[in-house]
Amino acid sequence: MLMPRQKTPGLTLPTLDNGQFDLSQENTERGTLVCFYRGLHCPVCATYLTELQKLLPAFADRGVGAIAVSSDNEERARGMADKIDAKELRIAYDLPLDQARDWGLYISTSRGKTSIGIEEPALFSEPGLFLVTPEQTLYFGTVQTMPFMRPHFSELVGALDFAIANNYPARGEYTAAV
């Protein structure tokens, strides 16, 4: 389990149009929002990533970068980028599923074609959203077992405003006996 204020796993992956992504080399004032999505087959992911893309300037104004990550191959990742008309959103692909597990993501098996007629991969990771500090420690994290019930990016922008104004620390860090 990932713990707030502790170092996250590394993350180095190819991206569609931005070269190699390396989380340890990110250079942002307040961190990087790492959005793990299910893949091209997921219509909920397309809607979610479209929302993220619209709010990239708001995150950037707050010193936060963002990247969308899936275990899809390059061709399927390009399909998602085309579907959501990704312009500024960095999209990484080829996430190894053992690394997805390192991040605490759930892994699902294929159920065939989805409601939009796209075949699910044999195995793929379910969604997760993490805000990783510039020191590569976890500030915020959430994982889902389903494509539904994800945090809204607009709410996260508001939460960032509060956290910045109040120097609010990462929470959930206690690990001793209870």
Could you characterize the architecture of this molecule?
- The chain has four helices and nine strands.
- The protein has 178 residues and is α/β, with parallel strands linked by helices.
- The chain has a domain at 31-145: Glutaredoxin.
- The strands form three sheets. The protein has a five-stranded mixed β-sheet with strand order 5-4-3-8-9.
- A hairpin with a 5-residue loop joins strand 8 and strand 9 (138-143).
- The protein is globular and about 45 Å long.
- The mean pLDDT is 97.
**Strand portion:** 15-25%
CATH superfamily annotation of the domain at 31-145: Glutaredoxin
For the record, the CATH class of the domain at 31-145 is Alpha Beta
List low-pLDDT spans.
none
Order of helices and strands: EEEHEHEHEEEEH
Span between termini: 17 Å
Q: Based on the structure given, which CATH architecture of the domain at 31-145 is correct?
A: 3-Layer(aba) Sandwich
The overall pLDDT average reads 97
Q: How many helical stretches? A: 4
Radius of gyration: 16 Å
Strand order of the largest sheet: 5-4-3-8-9
How many strand segments?
9
Q: Main β-sheet, in a few words?
A: 5 strands, mixed
Per the CATH scheme, the topology name of the domain at 31-145 is: Glutaredoxin
Which word captures the global form? globular
What helical percentage do the residues reach?
25-40%
- Quickly give the structural class: alpha/beta
